[in-house]
């Protein structure tokens, strides 16, 4: 899976660049390298990477000035600067993460994998939300409109309710664990917690039951919930 991802290293220290290149390629990533901010801009004109590892103290165009030009690209700052205010400023200005030199390669690789995974999940969720009607039994769901249809009527849902119902409807008659539901909806509905999930489920059940007189969601003891 990693081979599909392209990572650009923007680092003027040749030894660090070599070390990063070797570690990333061992993980299956496609790697490009720039040794200055100006060179990085030239590479960006040819191809957009999935993630940039950015040093701050670069010759010519420094990392702080290059960062705004990386808008829309996951960027992990690598710097010996430990000033908290500077870290916070860069994170607000678009950096995805900040790791202080010297760092452990294993930690950097883990952060890269986590950011790429989250980005992929967000893209997948956004794509799924534009799908047409989802149907299960006598119930239909339009994620774009946050509306369910049952018993000939329309049911308005919150974004969290729609996200939960979608997961259950895509797996009819199959119990879905609480942790699975929370993980799947966490990208778009971070407000939902283990404590509030039960209340959201209860709200959905009532809305559907009021529409067609049927209880479509069943609690499965020790597991979670299922749509039937």
What are its keywords?
elongated; alpha/beta; Rossmann fold; single chain; 43% helix; 228 residues; 2 domains; five-stranded parallel β-sheet; Arc Repressor Mutant, subunit A
Can you walk me through this structure?
- With 228 residues, the chain is of the alpha/beta class.
- The protein folds into two domains: 2-128, Response regulator (Rossmann fold); 134-227, Arc Repressor Mutant, subunit A.
- Helix content is 43%, strand content 22%.
- A hairpin with a 3-residue loop joins β11 (217-220) and β12 (224-227).
- The two termini are 35 Å apart.
Map the helices and strands:
Elements: E1 6-10, H1 14-26, E2 30-34, H2 37-46, E3 51-55, H3 63-66, E4 74-79, H4 84-92, E5 97-100, H5 105-128, E6 134-136, E7 139-142, E8 147-150, E9 153-156, H6 159-169, E10 176-177, H7 178-185, H8 194-212, E11 217-220, E12 224-227
Parallel strand pairs: 1-2, 1-3, 3-4, 4-5
Antiparallel strand pairs: 6-7, 7-8, 8-9, 10-12, 11-12
Helix pairs in contact: 6-7, 6-8
Q: What structural category characterises the helix and strand content?
A: alpha/beta
The fraction of residues in strands falls at 15-25%
Tell me the helix content: 40-55%
For the secondary structure, the number of strands is: 12
Mean pLDDT across all amino acids: 89
What pattern of helices and strands is seen along the backbone?
EHEHEHEHEHEEEEHEHHEE
Q: Please identify, by name, the CATH architecture of the largest domain.
A: 3-Layer(aba) Sandwich
Number of domains: 2
Radius of gyration: 23 Å
At the fourth level of CATH, the homologous superfamily of the largest domain is: Response regulator
Largest sheet, in brief, is:
5 strands, parallel
Shape: elongated
Low-confidence stretches: none
- Work out the helix count: 8
Distance between the termini: 35 Å
Q: What do we call the CATH topology of the largest domain?
A: Rossmann fold
Main CATH class of the largest domain? Alpha Beta
Enumerate the strands of the largest sheet in spatial order, edge to edge or round the barrel. 2-1-3-4-5
């Amino acid at each position: 899976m990693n081979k599909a991802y392209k990572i650009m290293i923007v680092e003027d220290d040749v030894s660090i660049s070599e070390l990063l290149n070797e570690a990333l390629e061992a993980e299956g990533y496609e790697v490009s390298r720039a040794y200055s901010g100006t060179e990085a801009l030239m590479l960006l004109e040819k191809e957009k990477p999935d993630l940039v590892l950015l040093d701050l103290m670069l010759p010519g165009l420094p990392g702080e000035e290059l960062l705004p030009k990386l808008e829309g690209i996951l960027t992990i700052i690598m710097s010996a600067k430990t000033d908290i205010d500077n870290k916070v400023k860069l994170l607000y200005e678009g950096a995805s993460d900040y790791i202080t030199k010297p760092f452990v390669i294993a930690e950097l690789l883990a952060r890269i994998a986590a950011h790429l995974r989250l980005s992929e999940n967000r893209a997948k969720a956004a794509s799924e939300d534009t799908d047409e009607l989802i149907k299960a039994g006598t119930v239909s769901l339009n994620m774009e409109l946050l509306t369910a249809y049952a018993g000939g009527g329309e049911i308005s849902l919150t974004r969290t309710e729609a996200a939960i119902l979608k997961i259950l409807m895509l797996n009819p008659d199959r119990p879905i664990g609480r942790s699975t539901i929370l993980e799947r909806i966490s990208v778009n509905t971070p407000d939902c917690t283990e404590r509030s999930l039960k209340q959201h489920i209860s709200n959905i059940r009532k809305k559907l039951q009021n529409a067609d007189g049927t209880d479509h969601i069943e609690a499965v003891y020790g597991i979670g919930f299922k749509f039937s």
